[in-house]
Amino acid sequence: MANKVSLKGVSKIYKTGSTEFKALDNVDLDIEAGKFVVILGPSGAGKSTLLNLIGGMDTPTAGQVIVNGEDITHFSDNQLSDFRARSIGFIFQFYNILPSLTVRENVELINEIVKDHRDAAEAIADVGLAEHMNKFPNQLSGGEQQRVSIARAIAKNPALLLCDEPTGALDSTTGVMILKILKKQCSEERGNNTVIVVTHNALIADIADVVIRVKNGRIVKVEENTKPLDVEEVQW
Amino acid sequence: MLFKKTLREIREHFGQFFAIFAMVALASMIYMIVTAYSGGMKNNCDQFYKENNLPDLWAYGEIDAEILKNIQNTPGVAGAERILTVRGSTKIDGEEDEIPIDITFTDPDVDTLTVNTFHVTAGSDYDANADGLWLSRMFAENHNIKVGDDFTVTYEGYDITKPVLGIISVPDSVYKTADENTIFQDASKYGWIYLSMNSFPEEYIYDEAIKTDAVQDFLEGAADLEDSVSQLTETGLTEAEAWKQVKAAAEIDEKTDLQRAVQLSSKIMDKSAALSDKADFIRAFDSEFSLQDAYVFSTCIIDVDGLAPGILEKGDKGFSAKLSDTKKAVSIIDGVDAVTDRESCYSFVAYKSECEEGDTYSVMFTGIFVFIAILAVITTMNRFVKQQRIQIGTLKALGFRKKRVIRHYLSFGFYVSIIGVIVGDLIGYFVLADVLVKMEADTYDVPGLSKYFDYTNFIAAAVIILCIVIVAYLSCSKILNESAAQTLRLEVPRIKMKNRDGGSGLTSRFGFSTKWNLRDIKRSKARTAMGIVGIMGATLIIVLAYGMMDSFDRYIQWNFDDIPHYQYSMSLSKNITEKELAALYDAYGDATTETVVITYKNAKGELVDATVTVNDSHGMLRVSDNNIQTHDIEDGIPGSTVGNVDDDGAIIVTGKLLKKMGMKLGDTVEWQPAGSDAWYSSKIAAQGRHPQMQQFSMTRKAYEGLGLRYEPDTVFTDADLSDTSAGDLDGVESIASVETLKKQLQDMLQTFNVMISMFIILAGLLGLVIIYNMGILSMSEKTYQFATLKVLGFRVRRIRRIYEIQNIWIAVVGIILGLPAGFYFTDYIFKYSIGDNYDFFATVDLSTYLIAIGFMFGVTLLTNWILGRKIKTIDMVTALKANE
User: Fold this and answer.
1) Is A101's Cβ below 8 Å from some Cβ in B?
2) Does any domain span residue A1?
3) Which of A149, A198, B21, B836 could make an SS bond with A95 (beta carbons 3.0 to 4.6 A apart)?
4) Does a structural domain hold residue A22?
């Protein structure tokens, strides 16, 4: 299967005054399409930086980032915006949904920037929120808000779903529900989307197709999981 | 340690804190300036009035020695002196026109003046026997005239040349203008002098004596008398015998030196008589003639026992009752035509209203700037504490007590405002107050006019600081009162929207940008309201600044173009003869008016002094209706006339006076002309308006219908009198050009440009500070939402549009509210902060509104552009992490 994501010699250095911090150090990485990938590592290891570079939210200091066949390394701001709009679905730990828009409106927001989008109601139904369509975020629980965030992400039909600690703020039952939804996005039924989850919860690794371990800005191990567990099978 | 933190953070956020500092400094500075100069004006003038004894009453009539004695003996009168004030003119080298000069002759029998005494700046004090004159300080300074210089004034064609003995100020001439049409005192165009009646031009008196019927009859028969004497001498009589017989036959007074009188009569008749000939002739004709007996004093200035209320001083208790009793007692003395008090003294009233205007301005403008400072504080502190959230939480977590943390954050407002107040007050008192006092000293003749420190500045400073600190507290109390844990969590806007709004509310029908902005406004009501109020305030200031100019332009048009339909007015001499008047009519037309001083009874029955303009100008001096349209008085005032203005006694009253009288259209007012015992009843037939004189008017027909004799004192003409001076025309005391008066006023108003520039800068500053602060606040609240939009793939330009549209809406609402607010504020200033005599109103041109709209939109777009650029630099990663 073709690579969905390809990083070649990627480094990311943050500068604060005269101090430099190397968040990623000469990283090479290939991720195949249709995989559920988990990036594991301790705090400060560089996993979120890796995710941000793949998602076009940040640019590398050195190296090359190719996503979905596009070399986004030297994209301008507008090109990156368009790239994110058409190819990337983001899911964050704290949802980042717009509080002044209803569930439906948050998802319909995608209609403003993506032509080939899914029907918002369908995406909402997929995450089990059909009954809450007209509610505002403050009327929903944390898990429900995260599901809105997922609905918004999948409504784009993204090639790549990037999730940064998607269950970090949720209880285990809700976390399981979210992971099930995410895992489902890799299925044929959903078009073999690639899902990359950044987490420091090692248990999530059991359900992944690929587990990438990051430490001190370097990829220390890439493991293929030949027999990933179902979400239900994991002992949370 | 926290103090260090405060100082460093103020330095770090210098822009915002400087804005608060600037507004506080401006507010306290304006209060300081106005109180310093206005307080100085009041105190110095009160002192001047007290020390130099401003008269309490003015009695008019032919005040001879007996009347004077009666006045002096009236209970309540502490002192009374006679004067005669006439209008003369002088020619100053380099000046094109003659300059009007009021000449006041003092009683030569009074050695030391006790009422309206001289404040001598240079030269000697008053001396009745000294041969010279005392000149107005402002006029002398304007024309560089020094003590010892000879100064010539011309009265009715008679020159008086005397050395200047002293440069003086007198309390009843603090503010004097050349005539009623001139608004501002201008010492380059008008002056006054004092001198003893001994200096009155003798020739004038002899000429007046010669003009009497008895002398004229004698002169006409003088040749016959001489012939008779010749015939008698031919019969052999001695010349002396012949003169004796002729005198007896003609029944001429025994004491008359007939021979000498007849000898000089030919010179008198052929106008070749010198002053000595005229003197000899009159003395020969009337052996008892004395110059002193011919002196006429038209005014008696009276000091009532006790201290009268000044501008600040309240005066003695019971003084007003005593003043009223004395006024009544003096008015019934035989020979006294009218008595007026300080409220009819133009100088006193004009100066007092200037001081009152100062009080209004100080409160009003200080209020505006404190209000602006408060807005700046609210927005800045709100924004500042939001930025400081983690630090506040950290301080609390470290164990700093809530009170200590609150005190620390209040200290920002406190230090900035205390420095602002100190700097504002210092600049206000030591720099700008002097500038204003100097301007006032150039306008008002108050000796030693200097600034004054008003203790209320301490109160104002305390109130300003307190306001800022309270507002600072209210702005940040929410965060400061949270628990440490709560505060340490970065704020995510707590947005509580109702289901109804999202499901089927009005906003659900709009596009994303509109919907999002409307809901953002809904949940940020306070911020939105502050933005609207701030922009409204800035718009108001621009409309006020330009509106004042528009209103002055309209006033000038009304006063100088609409009301006078003539080019020149000629003030007639009191002694104008029928022949001279007829000659003037022939040359310049018979459009005339007479100003009659009257006393009327108001609705409460109180006696009030006023004037009636009897208008026979054939439409040249027009009357205004309520809409400032002008009409020939003969036509009445459309819409405000009851009956016929030509009916006997029908009177027209200006609106403000009518209100002051407590009467209404159709009522009857009783009035008495000065110098008359008779009271007349007049129906108020019409109501008009006048920009600077609240008075009565009548048609000549209505006036004469009461049996009163019309004696014009002003002639109006369209003829070109630019090369004619009063001295060229017999019977004319002064000539005023409407165009010149208009130009003088326009020149004076140029100083307003400075004020307007200041207002515009302030409006710009206010607009920028408020819109910028609001924008920053709004931006910081939405940063994570914008970051989310960026992550989703929204382009920066699109997000900028979403962000900017809200600011534009707020600006539109602020401007829409600011335009009428600006109009009403201007109107308030014009209507209520100027003297009772004036009837001003705001006129704001369309161009002013367009300028205000353009300027505010410019500021909005500029701030949008500055802040919109920040969207590009929002770091999605940081912004969204911060949200976690």
Assistant:
1) yes
2) no
3) A149
4) no
